[in-house]
Specification:
By secondary structure, the protein is an alpha/beta fold. It has 33 helices and 27 strands. The strands form 6 sheets. The chain has a 7-stranded parallel beta sheet. It has a 6-stranded parallel beta sheet with strand order 13-18-17-14-16-15, with helices on both faces. Strand 24 and strand 25 form a beta hairpin. Helix 15 runs antiparallel to helix 16. The N terminus is likely disordered.
């Protein structure tokens, strides 16, 4: 009877169930293959009930096994499976060298070489904080200065950084590098990006195109989709590891419910997931810092948290690693700045406490373009003006408005000759007659309510000046007008009759379809620049900015009527849908030889995050915001990395300054250059600009004083610390410079050449039965360019991003040469896609080859033999993989190492082995050795006590132990450094808290404290209370931090596997063995 025959059960006379070997349940830390991918076991636990004999051949318990991906393109993905029910899984043994090879079952060296490269690229280490990996896996052109945040991030157990680089230096790239490195090192899995609503789509596209990272945007559409697919209680923050949320949505009830649900389900200590979220990015972070209101009597107030501040702080507390991005981090008020810093790192800062200069230096990265300008990388700005002749009617009506406002102020007993509404109306008048008329009409409709403010200093700053919101809503009644209408005060136009107001409104509306003097001058400028002969359009482009949607619409109507519309003209405003905004941006940055768009009219909704520098270096300020941050965001749209020309910033200059209208326009125009001159003084620029605007538009009567309260000694000390530190961040690390300069050499050492990456994709497609890439070439580059053929559905996800916004669904050609997508370092070629190591197509290809090479039932044989011309002695080399896994399945280190011996028995030096394998696996047109040579090497290898095999096995084992010890020592050093760093952080913070509490308690007795409004006093008392609580909590928090450091490096287990064996045969030996 066959051994598989059923035996008979003596009790019932029925055949007994055959003995079935249950699959081995892997212990935590083991390496397994599940669903075609490699994973580390985090935990294995028994199910609550045994399996039923009625359902299973053998009764027994089932096990739920929690896994964490070791694939570099899965970046920490987690999976839970029922081990006994999972099909096709295996526990990876520590594969030694093969004891037998078949001379007729040999791999093509090109295929094996591609597989070895795929394994090499999948090796990631956490042991060395100087071994940067993200720059080599991204599609971004990384500059040396952009590596500084990455270096900072890797020096600490937790990443807490305020990226405060100048507008246009690439903070998105810097943040992407940090996040990708954390994901690669398994220091992060879940990531949340918080940004203004207008930037959500941009972040999603940038992360996919440059880093191969998929993010989903959490919005109403996604919520509806998730509820349909996963039920009404589904939470997208749990379903997707990487999400983007709008900072406008974040404080809402729905968002807070979703985040609270995640917080309540935090994992247990010792697992791979210890925080609700691993990493947080907050873009344009100045939006979440509280502004500082003015106290009674015009003094300095105390920052009060907004709902957005509170929601962001609560989210930050749930995230281990935090990156806050803003070009304007400090608005001049230390309370606001410390509130922002507390969100960045609550182990170093707390709201209202003094600023520790050392702690600030640790978390802040700030560089200005002026400090990095070299080789023409950042051409300096040029400020020019468009001259115009003020129209007498415009001057007449502006003077009438001023007179009515002044008379009304006197009747109301105001000490200023104007008030806040006067500035608002004048600001609208200086933008456009049409916008002024719309605003004045809204005023007349609200006049009966009497809701107008008295405190000019306070409301100016919050509504028009440096404290004004940087976000433009896209409606005629912007936040400034809404805030005024909700305030209480005297009627600022009480002296104006209905007839006066009707006349001003009718005059402004008379410009609905015709230009004023400035727009007439602008039309002349646009024709000279974009249509110099009056008929033929040049390739020059111009962007025109205005604060107000009504002004934008008016400009568009007039330009269209003058033949400057149609396909040549487009707009971007706050009311645009995200995809429409992105499509317009893509048109404006496309090659002007193929895209006819020449003129872009934008509100300040385009002032953040939209890059327009590719084919545009002229920016016209039709009006000028009084908020320096908003103005800097504007100018940064064309003054950023990749700009080849001097960015030209244009304002309007009246040819005469005799009238009030002309004088005010001249002042506003000169405000742009003034802000430019003092923008390095981040702590004072807002105060200076606010004071200058107030003095110009609302001067106080003689003898009333300035009303400006002197700054406290602490405020001045904090401002000095902040300014000095933010200015000191411009030093460039020589190590980073050297890395940038050797970038190309490092890529070659990692085999990240165009030829190697193309070979991996070609091989993967061939092994998976897919059609080959179609070489089609390009007139723009000599590098190979390919069309992607129709691939099977399982490959479709790897083609994400190959189409474009302007041609959705149409795959662009691809290239593996990064130099092919730029014109000698100048403009990006948007019609070509660079397939870099982080691109989904290359990620999938590499994963397929790694799996194929390392799995037990591989179609590959794991060895090859190649005749190498010029080789003096024949050698054999092994390609091995060393993986060190810590507690909870954390991959701490992975490397690929080579070991070689000569056929004579002598060992081959490490460098020589690398050179040998390069020659054997990377040369052009590789062919496997003929049958006679393969038969000879197989016979030598298969001998029962093969000296060749045993010597290579012994040397491989020694090398593995040596490498393991080196890495273990590095991990030990890293653990000690992390623990020491954490102790230093808490010690310094404890000292700062103690001193700050004593100082704040003393300040409460100061008379200036009594000038704070009630809500400000409550906020200050709350800050003081929280400082006391933090001081008490620090001991436990420090212990938890140190325990987390020890846990990360505990229970390290090594796994060594041989991936391939390569015989490199000299020509002499090949000739001798061929006939054997």
């Amino acid at each position: 009877m066959s051994s598989m025959a059923a035996s008979t059960d003596s009790a019932f006379g029925l055949p007994s169930a055959p003995t079935v070997a249950l699959p081995e349940v892997p212990a935590p830390g083991r390496i397994v293959t599940v669903r075609g991918s490699t994973w580390a076991v985090v935990d294995a636990r028994r199910q609550g009930l045994p399996r039923s004999p009625a359902d299973e051949a053998t009764a027994g318990l089932q096990h739920v096994v929690d896994l964490q991906s070791l694939e570099d393109d899965r970046l920490g993905e987690e999976l839970s499976v029922v081990w006994e029910l999972e099909l096709g899984h295996s526990v990876d043994p520590e594969r030694a060298l093969p004891t037998h090879i078949d001379a007729d079952a040999v791999d093509d060296p090109n295929v094996l070489g591609a597989c070895v490269d795929a394994v090499r690229w999948g090796a990631v280490t956490s042991a060395d904080d100087h071994a940067y990996q993200a720059p080599f896996r991204s599609g971004a052109a990384v500059e040396a200065y952009q590596l500084e945040p990455l270096a900072r991030a890797l020096r600490s157990p937790r990443t807490n950084l305020l990226l405060a680089d100048d507008v246009g230096l690439g903070k998105t790239i810097e943040a992407g590098l940090v996040i990708q490195e954390l994901l690669l090192r398994h220091r992060a899995r879940t990531v949340v990006i918080v940004c203004p609503p207008s930037l959500s789509l941009k972040w999603q596209c940038e992360m996919l195109e440059k880093f191969g990272l998929d993010f989903v945007i959490v919005d109403s559409a996604l919520m509806a989709q998730v509820r349909r697919s996963h039920g009404l209680a589904a939470n997208p923050l749990k379903l997707f590891p990487r999400v983007i949320v709008s900072m406008a949505w974040l404080p809402g009830l729905r968002a807070q419910r979703l985040f609270r649900d995640v917080r309540d389900g935090l994992g247990q200590p010792g697992t791979a997931k210890r925080w609700a979220f691993d990493a947080l990015i907050v873009d344009e972070a100045h939006h979440v810092a509280p502004s500082s209101p003015t106290a009674v009597g015009g003094g300095r107030g105390y920052a009060v948290d907004s709902n957005r501040t509170q929601a962001t702080r609560a989210l930050a507390e749930l995230c281990e690693h935090r990156l806050f991005l803003t070009a304007t981090p400090h608005n001049g008020y230390s309370e606001s700045f410390t509130a922002l810093l507390e969100m960045v790192d609550d182990r170093r800062f707390t709201r209202g406490a003094a600023i520790d200069p050392t702690a600030l230096a640790d978390v802040t990265v700030r560089r200005l373009k002026s400090s990095l300008a070299k080789d023409g990388a950042f051409p300096p700005r040029v400020f020019e003006s468009i001259p115009f002749d003020p129209d007498p009617r415009e001057e007449e009506h502006f003077e009438k408005l001023h007179r009515l406002l002044t008379d009304s102020a006197k009747r109301n007993g105001r000490e200023r000759s104007g008030d806040l509404l006067a500035m608002l109306l004048k600001k609208r008048f200086l933008s456009s007659p049409w916008s002024f008329a719309q605003t004045l009409d809204l005023y007349t409709q609200s006049r009966a309510v009497g809701a107008w403010p008295d405190a000019v200093d306070d409301y100016y700053e919050q509504v028009l000046g440096s404290g004004a919101s940087d976000e433009e809503e896209g409606e005629s009644a912007q936040p400034e007008f809404t805030a005024l209408r909700a305030s209480k005060g005297s009627d600022p136009l009480v002296a104006a009759s209905e007839a006066d107001l009707d006349e001003l409104i009718a005059w402004g509306r008379g410009y609905e379809h015709r230009p004023d003097a400035r727009l007439t001058a602008l039309i002349t400028y646009l024709n000279a620049t974009c249509r110099p002969d009056g008929a033929t359009w040049s390739n020059e482009r111009v962007v025109i900015f205005t604060e107000y949607t009504e002004t934008m619409r008016w400009v568009v109507r007039v330009l269209e009527s003058r033949g400057l519309g149609g396909e040549r003209l487009a707009t971007i405003s706050g009311s645009d849908a995200a995809h429409d905004r992105e499509r317009t941006r893509a048109r404006f940055t496309a090659d002007p030889t193929t895209e006819p768009l020449r003129i872009l009219v934008a509100t300040d909704a385009a002032g953040e995050g939209i890059d327009l520098q590719t084919y545009c270096h002229r920016l016209v300020n039709l009006d000028v915001p009084f908020n320096p941050s908003r103005l800097e965001q504007r100018l940064g749209r064309i003054d950023r990395w990749g700009q080849r020309h001097n960015p030209v910033m244009l304002t309007f200059a009246p040819t005469t300054k005799s009238g009030r209208y002309a004088a005010d326009l001249d002042f506003v125009g000169r405000l742009v250059s003034k802000i430019e001159q003092i923008k390095t003084e981040l702590g004072s620029v807002n105060e200076i600009v606010d004071a200058q605007v107030l003095d110009h538009f609302a001067p106080r009567r003689a003898g009333t004083g300035t009303g400006a309260a002197p700054r406290s000694q602490r405020a001045m000390a904090d401002a000095k610390v902040i300014t000095e530190q933010l200015a000191a961040g411009m030093r460039l690390n020589s190590e980073l410079t050297a890395l940038s300069q050797s970038y190309g050499e490092r890529k070659v050492a990692l085999h990240l050449t165009p030829q190697s990456t193309q070979r991996v994709v070609d091989t993967a497609l061939r092994l998976d039965g897919q059609p080959a890439l179609i070489e089609e070439g390009s007139q723009d580059t000599d590098a190979p360019v390919f069309a992607v053929p129709a691939l099977a559905a399982r490959w479709h996800s790897s083609l994400r991003g190959l189409d474009s916004v302007l041609a959705p669904g149409v795959l662009r050609p691809i290239t593996f040469d990064d130099a092919a997508v730029t014109d000698r370092g100048e403009r990006d070629r948007a019609h070509l896609v660079h397939i870099h190591l982080g691109h989904p197509l290359l990620q999938r290809s590499a994963r397929l080859l790694r799996t194929e090479l390392l799995r037990p039932d591989s179609r590959l044989h794991g060895w090859t033999a190649v005749v190498v011309p010029g080789l003096e002695q024949s050698c054999v080399a092994s390609v091995s993989r060393l993986v060190l896994v810590g507690r909870g399945g954390l991959r701490l280190h992975e490397e690929v190492f080579m070991t070689g011996v000569r056929f004579s028995g002598q060992a081959v030096a490490e460098d020589a082995v690398l050179t040998l394998l390069d020659r054997a696996l990377d040369s052009a047109r590789l062919t496997v050795a003929d049958a006679g040579v393969r038969s000879h090497v197989a016979t030598r290898w298969n001998e029962e006590q093969s000296h060749l095999r045993e010597r290579l096995q012994a040397d491989t084992g020694k090398r593995a132990l040596r490498q393991q010890q080196l890495v273990t020592d590095k991990l030990g050093e890293r653990e000690g450094a992390d623990a020491q760093r954490a102790t230093q952080i808490f010690t310094a913070f404890r000292r700062n808290l103690t001193e700050s509490i004593a100082r704040l308690e003393a300040e409460e007795r100061d008379a200036a404290y009594q000038l704070f409004a009630d809500d400000q006093q409550r906020q200050r008392r709350e800050d003081l209370r929280r400082m006391g609580e933090r001081l008490v909590e620090l001991g436990d928090e420090e212990r938890r931090e140190l325990d987390a450091v020890r846990t990360r490096y505990a229970e390290v287990r090594p796994f060594v596997s041989t991936a391939a064996v390569v015989f490199a045969i000299s020509q002499a030996d090949a000739d001798r063995w061929a006939g054997v």
